[in-house]
């Protein structure tokens, strides 16, 4: 095994792929979001590529696709609920981590702690939870509310939510269960700890009716980049997925977040920063460009306008000439900074409406890279060795083809350079990521603020 | 295929089995509740036996085991969360239904509709939902409450919950998704129906972000036997699990519930009544009796007293001589009728405290039967042909051994008599149970109150 520090990889797998027109691509599975055989193949391909984890995004509503009615019926709108899908995938994979987004806003800590603990036991320690808050009106309206919860309140709730969930995971010590048929003793009463949490947002007694997860806690992931988000991550996250456009931006984010860890007594290594990368791969640069162009041409203008209209604050652009300039926009209530970013970009580069939506249709804020396997490996190496990233969340443009390309062409190149594993180091996701296994906060050994590191078993 | 009417079978599978001391039995898996290989084997065994479905009970807390601290540490207290477990089992089975309890009291309809729809897609139409309300204080305390919700309110909430869930399942018509790569149209806008439910307990806009379930709706199961429970079942349930001691009681329940169906425009066949049966099987009657005795001897007195104490209203019996009579009991707040039932039984049969708990330790109110395969088949046939049951929910005393016995010894006897299938009739749980596939309430065909019956495809 190489002693060189190696990067970590997530495979971010929406049903048909990340590009706005992915489902229309000839190598994409149009019904991928609800096709288990497709997901089974994806997860097994990612495992063949030695990815650390599969990652699934989620939301508790059909996402809006901008103003107007035309865009929605031209986009993928239905998909598996992630915890059920990951549970099924646990049976057809052996090594790869199984991670998904679940919101803290419209869930209860007891349900969430239970489901992730259950997945962790089903998979032998491969579960991971991407903690988010829900910030859209369409989600609020599915949960007895007219509008979404205010930002600060959402984050306060999220922070307490994690406290409760980790207490529930610690209800039982790792060796609480004796199951001694002879004496009839099922568990050691001294190793049961009833959380009895009473806080601002939650009152949860416990204990959990699932044993402590195999990993102690499933790996905790976050993606917030607001101040509240970064602070919550510095306290509780072990992986951050983030969108960064340039090495300089990535370095700034990396330094910022890592420096926040010390105030919580955490080492820089205990949090892995993984920017999203949208790779379009060709055997030659020209082939890659042609592939990207093919995808761009599949974008229906209604869908492009819907995406752009949504990102500039819900403004309907369908009455403006698509090959003309972006009009002056009214003030928006939400997403001011994103509106300004896009307006500035359009003015600076003199883009038409169509050119503007094409420029964001691939990776939507994540780093896009179109080139040969060597060129893409160069980019990943550059960011990794220069303090911009601990690894990457790979966002294939279309699926399954885009993941096949990455595993067949880019992974071997990263391995040749010694930048990526050729075999899994450990049994659990936590071990593969090189993260410490949390000590039970209620056990007698838990006095020290340091976490006990469980070495990867190789 | 036989044209004789045949009975339906559920396999009710708690981790180690149903008997109070199951986990201590030499043929029981003591860690069964959290052992996926064990559950995989159980589900495959039940499928080999052509069972209609696997059934999992559930609660959102560690169950109380009566007053005092001694009983809890001697009983199984942890197990998989059922939806994650069933999703994993969907991958290792092909025909058998996958059904589980989820409470309407501490859940949200959007989450529940999504998860069961997702499981139904993962399994190709094999999901079933056992609708319950949560009635214990230990559950309330895990969800920000001091005490459980009042009975009538729970049932009002449950009724509205089902309304919302079925509306969400009907968000998309069966053929809504065109996924036409050429035209770029993903779904037919005329076949999307936004529920926009606003009621007493829930305000849920929708649509669901999962396509309509393969079965239209997953099969809806209930187990309530109160007046509220029976009325809710008559309106919404397709299967009822029930506890009946004698043929006469079973017939009375059967007639009562079936007669309630007509006022909701439903046919008697659209609801299957399946009492629980706890079978202890021996090749001879003596072998069966010895097997049962072996289980009874494994009951730790603390656990027996805990069970009995809980069932008579939370009264601590540990200070009374275990081989003496049941003392006079104080009035209880809850479960008055159960307290009276047990007190009467003890007086009538002159039972000691130990004898009383032994009498309920096996099936806890369900019908217990100890005998040869022929004797057990006789019982099932008697209840089935004489209007006491449409089928049975089989509760093996210990697992895996008790299920193996039933599949190897009783199923062939039922098949010889023409009472049970030798091959699955349909592709989905609904088809195997002979239940109609619900028409989408929002589609143009849905004007008639009659449900369209989709024939089993054989």
- How many distinct folded domains of chain A? 2
User: How many angstroms does the end-to-end distance of chain A come to?
Assistant: 9 Å
Largest sheet of chain A: 8 strands, parallel, barrel
Low-confidence stretches of chain A: 447-458
Strand order of the largest sheet of chain A: 1-2-3-4-9-10-11-13
Indicate the mean pLDDT of chain A: 93
Q: What is the helical fraction of chain A, as a range of percent?
A: 25-40%
Name the quaternary structure.
homodimer
Organism (chains A, B): Tolypothrix bouteillei VB521301
Family (chains A, B): Belongs to the NtaA/SnaA/DszA monooxygenase family.
Binding site for FMN (chains A, B): 58, 101, 151, 155, 225-226
GO molecular function (chains A, B): monooxygenase activity; oxidoreductase activity, acting on paired donors, with incorporation or reduction of molecular oxygen
Blueprint (SSEs and pairs):
2 copies of one chain form a homodimer.
Chain A: E1 8-12, H1 36-48, E2 53-56, H2 82-92, E3 97-103, H3 109-122, E4 127-132, H4 137-140, H5 151-169, E5 177-180, E6 185-187, E7 197-198, E8 203-204, E9 219-222, H6 227-236, E10 239-242, H7 247-261, E11 272-281, H8 285-297, H9 301-311, H10 336-348, H11 353-360, E12 367-371, H12 373-385, E13 391-394, H13 401-416, H14 429-433
Parallel strand pairs in A: 1-2, 1-13, 2-3, 3-4, 4-9, 9-10, 10-11, 11-12, 11-13
Antiparallel strand pairs in A: 5-6, 7-8
Helix pairs in contact in A: 2-3, 3-5, 5-6, 6-7, 9-11, 12-13
Binding site for FMN (chains A, B): 58, 101, 151, 155, 225-226
Domain Luciferase-like (chains A, B): 19-390
GO molecular function, one term (chains A, B): monooxygenase activity
């Amino acid at each position: 095994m190489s002693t060189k520090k190696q990067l970590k990889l997530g495979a971010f797998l929406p049903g048909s792929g990340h590009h706005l027109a992915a489902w229309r691509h000839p190598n994409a599975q149009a019904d991928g979001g609800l096709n288990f055989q497709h997901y089974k193949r994806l997860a097994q391909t990612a495992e063949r590529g030695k990815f650390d984890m599969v990652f699934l995004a989620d939301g508790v509503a059909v996402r809006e696709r901008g103003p107007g009615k035309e865009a929605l019926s031209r986009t993928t709108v239905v998909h598996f609920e992630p915890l059920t899908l990951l549970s099924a995938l646990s049976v057809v994979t052996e090594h790869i981590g199984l991670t998904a987004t679940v919101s803290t806003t419209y869930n209860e800590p007891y349900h969430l702690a239970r489901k992730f603990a259950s997945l962790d036991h089903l998979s032998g320690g491969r579960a991971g939870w991407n903690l988010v808050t829900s910030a859209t009106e369409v989600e609020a309206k599915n949960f007895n509310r007219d509008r979404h919860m205010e930002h600060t309140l959402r984050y306060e709730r999220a922070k307490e939510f994690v406290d409760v969930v980790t207490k529930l995971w610690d209800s039982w010590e790792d060796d609480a269960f004796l199951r001694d048929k002879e004496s009839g003793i099922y568990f050691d009463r001294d190793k049961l700890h009833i959380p009895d949490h009473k806080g601002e947002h939650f009152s949860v007694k416990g204990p959990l009716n699932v044993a402590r997860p195999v990993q102690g806690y499933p790996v905790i992931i976050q993606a917030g980049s607001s101040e509240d988000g970064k602070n919550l991550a510095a306290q509780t996250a072990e992986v951050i997925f983030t969108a960064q456009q340039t090495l300089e931006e990535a370095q700034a984010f990396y330094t910022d977040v890592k420096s926040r860890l010390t105030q919580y007594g955490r080492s820089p290594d205990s949090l892995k920063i993984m920017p999203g990368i949208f790779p379009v791969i060709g055997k030659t640069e020209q082939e890659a460009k042609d592939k990207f162009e093919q995808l761009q041409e599949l974008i229906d203008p209604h869908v492009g306008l819907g995406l752009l209209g949504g990102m500039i604050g819900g403004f309907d652009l369908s009455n403006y000439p698509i090959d003309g300039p972006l009009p002056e926009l009214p003030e928006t209530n939400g997403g001011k900074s994103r509106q300004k970013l896009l307006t500035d970009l359009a003015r600076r580069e003199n883009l038409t409406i169509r050119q503007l939506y094409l420029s964001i249709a691939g990776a939507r804020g994540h780093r896009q890279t179109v080139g040969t396997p060597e060129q893409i490996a160069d980019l990943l190496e550059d960011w990794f060795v220069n303090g911009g990233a601990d690894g990457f969340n790979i966002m294939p443009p279309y699926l399954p083809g885009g993941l096949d390309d990455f595993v067949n062409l880019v992974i071997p190149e990263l391995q040749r350079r010694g930048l990526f594993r050729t075999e899994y180091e450990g049994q659990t996701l936590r071990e593969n990521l090189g993260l410490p296994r949390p000590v039970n906060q209620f056990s007698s050994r838990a006095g020290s603020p340091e976490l006990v590191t469980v070495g990867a078993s190789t």
